[in-house]
Every structure is written in C-alpha cells, then in structure tokens.
Design a protein that fits this description.
Length: 211
C-alpha cells in the first residue's frame, strides 16, 4: 500500500540561509514611519512585530500599507544581498527529498528577493513549492501559508514546519502542525507557549528525525 505523501515546510532567513536581516530593526523603522504619518499605535507591553504592524495598518490605515512594504523590501534586499547558505542546508534538502518528502519554502519575505537568493544558492531545484508574502493573506505568525500549501497539496497528510523563530512555531501550532526548531531561542519559545516537536542545532540532524 503506498505511503501517504509527507511534506516539510522550511523558513528562509536564519534557517536555510543566514542573513543580517534584523526583524526588530525593520519593525522599529515601520513604527517610526507610522508615527511620522500621524498614526497613534495602541500602547502594549511587548514590542510590535512587522506582521502585527501590517495587520494593524490594513485594518486602521490601509492607505499606508504600500509605504510599509517599501521599508520592509529595502531591509530584505540589503540583508539577502549579504546572505550565506547555512552549513548543511542544501544537503538536508536533498536528504529529506530522498526520504520521499515534498519540500516547500514559506517566508514572510517578498517574492523577488526570495527567489533571487534561492537561485543564487542553488536551493530552488530542491524546493517543490515557494510561498512568499505575495501568495498569502496574512503573514506569520498567522498560519495562512499552511492553508495555501494545503490547498495546493491536498493529498499531503503529514506536514512538518522547520524554522528558527517563534513566529514559525506559533504558525505551525495554529494548524496543529509539528514544529522543528532550528537553532531557536528556546527561552522565547517557552515564554510564548510555542510547542516544539523536535529541536536541531545542525542540518545533519534533520534526516535522522525520520529514520
């Protein structure tokens, strides 16, 4: 009897590639932009993340959304221009595909910079599907990217998400998908109540999870 298809969904920044993309700095620049535009952000205990700011603007000041994306894209282009392939990432992709997994990339980044870096590091041929922010309604930690993947791969019965950040884990948990934390901040994961199915520190550890 054939085995039901399985898939592994990978994050990009600080996961398959290491880059100087500083999401905190990006969010700070977005906050400054909104304040300069006269937008009063509600007070809160935790810092705003870029996805949260995008959602807020879509609901409260949609005319400013294009300005947010310009700032985000500038950060992404600068960072991906200095990106390096994570040691063992390409070999891990090959290994899990050899085990029969489909492979997908799911990132909050824009499609242009993402595809550029995938081609540069020869990752593209080893990914069956690429989902960027242009393909989703909402960014991580919203699980909308997993909805997109499920609609494109309705026959896949088991999906795993691999990422470095709480946003990856929270998105996975929202769809009941096991999360594999790659070199993650485990204190932050615990603080946010993100369940971790497995943790790896090196890409060579990934195929071994499915032996």
């Amino acid at each position: 009897m054939p085995t039901a298809p399985r898939a592994i969904v990978f994050d990009l920044d600080h996961t398959l590639v290491s880059s100087p993309l500083d999401l905190r700095a990006m969010a700070n620049d977005l906050v400054v932009f909104l304040r300069d535009q006269g937008v009063a952000l509600p007070p809160r205990d935790s810092r705003w993340s870029a996805p949260e700011l995008v959602r807020f603007v879509r609901e409260q000041a949609p005319s400013l959304e294009d300005g947010l994306w310009e700032i985000a894209l500038a950060h992404e282009q600068r960072a991906l221009g200095e990106a390096k392939l994570e040691p063992g990432a390409l070999e891990a992709l090959r290994a899990v595909r050899a085990l029969g997994f489909r492979t997908a990339l799911w990132t909050n980044n824009g499609g242009g910079p993402t595809r550029q870096v995938l081609e540069y590091f020869a990752l593209a041929p080893h990914l069956d599907l690429v989902v960027t922010r242009e393909e989703v309604r909402h960014l991580k930690p919203d699980p909308d990217g997993l909805r997109v993947i499920a609609e494109l791969w309705p026959d896949v019965e088991k999906v795993f998400v691999v990422g470095d950040s709480w946003v990856d884990g929270e998105a996975a948990a929202a769809r009941g998908v096991p999360f594999i934390a790659y070199r993650a901040d485990h204190e932050e994961l615990r603080r946010r109540g993100v369940p971790v199915w497995a943790a790896i520190a090196h890409w060579g550890d990934l195929p071994a999870l499915f032996d």
